[in-house]
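To: structure subgroup
Subject: Chain for Friday's discussion

All,

I'm putting the inputs and outputs inline so they're searchable in the archive.
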Amino acid sequence: MRMRPTLSWAPTEDLSPGTTDLEPVTDALSTGGVLVLSGAGISTESGIPDYRGEGGSLSRHTPMTYQDFTASAQARRRYWARSHLGWRTFGRARPNAGHRAVAAFGRHGLLSGVITQNVDGLHQAAGSEDVVELHGSLGRAVCLSCGAFTLRRELARQLEDANVDFGPVAAAINPDGDADLTDEQVGDFRVVSCTVCGGILKPDVVFFGEAVPPRRVEHCRKLVREAASLLVLGSSLTVMSGLRFVRQAAQTGKPVLIVNRDPTRGDRHSVTRIALPLGTALTTVAGQLGIPVNDETTGPA
């Protein structure tokens, strides 16, 4: 029987309700060398829902797994129909104050790096450089046969041409860019193949049940080793892909600071969890540090 990936977490111990004191974050950033690890919660203010927060998509939606995608043509048809529709909204999302603040911290030399669990490209759109996309990017697709990449905007044009009458209304958009559609709405949606070899196209993201590439993991571990502290922004740390870096930092004596409104799986490894909206929290910290947060250079992901 195939095991399903871990999608939820519930605390087994009493955890602090969190604080509103931003001083530890301000102090860490003023010292420099801060490594940011961001999750879906930083993008909610851009209109992209998270997985596990209040009203999160996991309450109504089970993400596609790598095993289902590769094993079933029908699963791929369902995924691409939903993702194609979701991309129309997802691809227009703009960075919010949280993304802009992170970019400003980077410009002022306060960060040692940014690792994001998100696939939306909003950190880069806000101006952050050298962002490690832990789970890949929805901005491109990869052929499972020959490895060729296709930009998502080009793939969107191909899918539009192959499905000129496709235009259902989605009930909701999810953090992975997947729209909520019924099987009836999916209908006979036509999936396109790799233009190089005719192989199966998959979004260049790490699906649930799929491993993060080992070289990417090791690069992130190196960033943790070189950082002075780890700042977690908007992640429940439910899945091991992000939690392992929190554990690594804590085990080596590096302070872990978390800004997330709800308790996280990493709380017991942190020195504080600040339960404030990210845009408000990070803009306040930037103000305390005398760093302007502007939006003049930001655009869609």
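Points worth raising on Friday:
The radius of gyration is 19 Å.
The first strand starts at residue 34 and ends at 38.

D.
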